């Protein structure tokens, strides 16, 4: 997401100076969009303080995270990255405000993992849920992202309440993303990864063994839609925003429906469903779909893709280009 966001920002705002920080060195084509790129860790407060000494930041896009499955394998590290890293960037933003008097914007991609349906039956009964329901995450990643949202909401609206009648020090904005499917990259360490993994396997002419049941239903969107949502949220006047975190989504297929839609485009695709218990438990605790009405009302969010149009207009053409398929 970070790479796509840098490209979209550079295209949309050529005058914008972008500093890119990633755990791994950023590839040349992305670095060409930046005034500087660094390979480093969001837990490295010294690195962030050095950046703060050298740049004035107007917007901070915080895309560094350990995703849900990786976080279950190393929950204490995940806390340090997902919550500690967020607090480090909030500190950076506060220092920026103290230095310049300008309130920086901090944008956090949150996740539907902040929701926790107590059982599969409850998930089926609940169907589509809104931002205020089932906020008891069942993964370290979901707990981390909900904590990050609350920290952002605190600095947005309550920090300085002892000194001021109108507290609030930052402009924090967040989107609870569903599963995201990219034609160019495969995710690592997520639990929605079965979606992109299945698609890329089909493009490579390989069979795919899904780690979730065929009836597993989750909301998804494409990477270009996710990046557009972030940029549209940052464009919104702060006064229009009634929430710190918003749901967005484009389509919500079951794993079997996803396989069937891909097979229409790649007829040779063979998918077997062999659930991994721990990852299936996570998916059974996430909502079948989410209500994006608040985003539509507050900042004009409108998804453009259905599953079929996402496949035909972006994913299949992108995969053919990515894998050099005729
Ligand atoms: C994950 N792709 O699977 C992420 C996402 C909805 C979950 O945040 O962990």
Structural description of this entry:
- The protein has 326 residues and is α/β, with parallel strands linked by helices.
- It has one domain (41-323): NAD(P)-binding Rossmann-like Domain (Rossmann fold, 3-Layer(aba) Sandwich), CATH 3.40.50.
- Helices cover 45% and strands 13% of the residues.
- The chain is built from 13 helices and 12 strands.
- The strands form 5 sheets. It has a 4-stranded parallel β-sheet, sandwiched between helices.
- The protein is globular, with a radius of gyration of 20 Å.
The pLDDT mean sits at 96
Global geometry: globular
Q: What do we call the CATH homologous superfamily?
A: NAD(P)-binding Rossmann-like Domain
Structural class: alpha/beta
Name the features.
single chain; 326 residues; alpha/beta; two-stranded parallel sheet; binds (3R)-3-hydroxy-L-norvaline; 4-stranded parallel sheet; 13 helices; Rossmann fold; globular; 12 strands; 45% helix
At a glance:
The chain is an alpha/beta fold and 326 residues long. The protein has helices spanning 2-12, 28-31, 45-54, 68-73, 75-100, 120-126, 140-157, 194-203, 223-235, 255-265, 277-284, 293-299, 307-323, and strands at 19-22, 36-39, 59-61, 105-111, 128-129, 171-177, 179-181, 208-210, 220-222, 245-247, 271-273, 289-290. The structure holds (3R)-3-hydroxy-L-norvaline.
Secondary structure layout plus pairing:
Blueprint: H1 2-12, E1 19-22, H2 28-31, E2 36-39, H3 45-54, E3 59-61, H4 68-73, H5 75-100, E4 105-111, H6 120-126, E5 128-129, H7 140-157, E6 171-177, E7 179-181, H8 194-203, E8 208-210, E9 220-222, H9 223-235, E10 245-247, H10 255-265, E11 271-273, H11 277-284, E12 289-290, H12 293-299, H13 307-323
Parallel strand pairs: 1-2, 3-4, 4-6, 5-12, 6-10, 7-9, 8-11
Helix pairs in contact: 1-9, 3-5, 5-7, 8-10, 10-13
